[in-house]
Design goal:
The protein is α+β, with helices and mostly antiparallel strands and 110 residues long. The chain is built from two helices and four strands, in the order αββαββ. The chain has a domain of 73 residues: P-loop containing nucleotide triphosphate hydrolases (Rossmann fold, 3-Layer(aba) Sandwich). The chain starts with a helix and ends in a 12-residue tail after the last strand.
Length: 110
Amino acid sequence: MSSLAESNSLRPISSRPGPDHRPAEAGVAVRAIGLTKRYRNPWTLRVTQGLEDLDLEVERGEVMGYVGPNGAGKTTTLKLLTGLHKPTRGEAWIFGAGESTWSWPAGCRA
């Protein structure tokens, strides 16, 4: 029995995508323009900035890492993109659909 490395080396080179290979449906997968989220404490009425004026664009087929220190807004960004939170200002789209058109499938709860 041959190893996985040996079996991969036996594949014809023409079937492997080249470095400039793009998916057939090239375009933007995630786009955010001026995305801002502010939280207001209901007791003190203090406003805390969760995210400020984020401009982001991720192409289809692209791999992106989203890293930063604690409190940088990583989780807030993902919650805004998935529709769990509503932005204070700005807009976001996933595969061309704006956050106002997103909905949970039947039977799912947030």
